[in-house]
């Protein structure tokens, strides 16, 4: 049994999706990020970095794993699925996983902060992070032109990248002119396990269909977390 500590974010959804894909039994522990539950001592004992997601594998002596990429690798290796066993195949999956961890996630995350959450609209910062997100999307689109999935068969690399790319409109970046990326997004969205995974836990907002009032409420809550985090970093 896996204990999953998570919230309705792209990084959180990576893990709920992979657990559903692997049909592993798990217990959901949804953390309220607005209340800083991820900073409480009991959770810091699981993840010293105070971020979601994290898991505890009860079948492996209560073994804790944090960082979403590390969790994906652990679960793939635990089950022997969603990542090839041969060195080259494994490397291809890890390359595209690192592409997401080092590029897509950080750039889209910063685009979200400056485009949606930061109290001041700093246009050069918005342009910078939306532009870099867009560049990374073009890389994905180019690769997917001749490949159904990112690294051979469907893998944790697809799950990791898809969990972020699917939220592209929230970052203010469109993919309408990237047909291969759009095809891949829709193909993965159609998977039953993916549809279940993105509802664990349910989000308080549908980022694609929310009205202006819902968007502002959600953004205000996120803005408060950004400002609180900034104050703590500065020792306020």
Automatic annotation (TrEMBL):
Residues 1-83 form the GST N-terminal domain. Residues 86-215 form the GST C-terminal domain. InterPro entries: Glutathione-S-Trfase_C-like, Glutathione-S-Trfase_C_sf, Glutathione_S-Trfase, Glutathione_S-Trfase_N, GST_C, Thioredoxin-like_sf. It holds the Pfam family GST_N. Belongs to the GST superfamily. This is Glutathione S-transferase.
